User: Fold this.
Amino acid sequence: MSAPTSQLVFPDPCDADSDGLLAAGGNLEPQTLLTAYRAGIFPWYELDGPILWWSPDPRMVLFPANFHCSRRLARRLKQSGTHITTDTAFYEVMKGCAARPEGTWIHPEMIEAYQKLFSLGHAKSVEVWQGNELVGGLYGVYMGRVFFAESMFSRVTDASKMALAYLVSQDWLMIDCQFHTTHLASLGALEISRLHFLDLLVEGLDVAIEGG
Assistant:
């Protein structure tokens, strides 16, 4: 494990250890984050600890065509009183994700960093509303036709799944889910090798998504 240099050069992603940990140190400035994501690297660390950079092998990925939309979810997507928006409540979505028990890594430093990316047009949120109440959503970073999903939350049943269903309806080559979870697997995400992921990343960064 090493540290990114002041020239924003990260170690080769394939040098990560068996857990996926690649480097420590650096900063969360927009250019640092964008350099990392372009190389298939993302930050994940505890508050008051060093910034840790990851490139796991295998990598959890959702290809839009593989998304599993259950009958219950399809009914919820059609129910009245619920609507979906994008990029209208980015901060609120991040706060909602941070409030999850497993979302403690989304601390104020991270929120500030990703808000900067959002203001520069490199991050996106999907919001699910019941009336005027935000009940779920997700956020992440995007480049070209690749969406790097960071986190999602629900305050009512299936709200985060509704946000994901909306996301996969767009023309993404792939949605990066980082690490395996049973929940993501149930929605159609699967593990691919790091090398396969990096090859797809190069392909996805070459073409911009319409309306992205």
